[in-house]
Amino acid sequence: MAANTSRTGKAASVAKTAKPALKAAKNEPATSLDKLIHERTRLALVRALAANSVMTFNDLKSLLQITDGNLSVHARKLEEAGYLECSKGYDGRLPRTEYRLSSSGRSALQKYVAHMEALIGAVKKSG
User: Fold this and answer.
1) Best CA proximity match to 119, nearest among 27, 34, 12
2) Comparing C-alpha atoms, which of 106, 118, 126 is closest to residue 29?
């Protein structure tokens, strides 16, 4: 039961912070979508990290069903943009890479979602 309350609280928090982003997104053209997040694999990666505070390389690879190289390239692009934080270490003798969504990554995702909602709303109004 506590997990549901936590998720509901998280959803309410996201909704509150998304309102200003939605207002701003309504005034932006579709061409101003964040192309870095808009790519399918990177969107899935960011979404997974928004739902989980930390994920390992192997967890992400399994969840997204992509190759090591593909995940590495997409994660690096997001990390270079400041959207992801990567930490490397060892679990015993095995290397362990963990990813977290940074605050700027979370903000970028909220803005992206708000922009998509605004576009969908515009299409519904015109249709």
Assistant:
1) 27
2) 118
What's the whole-model pTM score? 0.74
Average pLDDT over residues 85-89: 97
For domain 2-126, give its CATH number from 3.40.50.720, 1.10.10.10, 1.10.287.1080, 3.40.50.300: 1.10.10.10
> Distance of CA 64 to CAs 7, 17, 42, 123, Å?
22, 27, 10, 30
The beta-strand segments (E) located in the chain are: 55-56, 84-91, 94-101
Q: What pLDDT shows up at residue 74?
A: 98
What is the pLDDT at residue 119? 87
Give per-residue pLDDT as tens, 64-80: 999 999 999 999 999 99
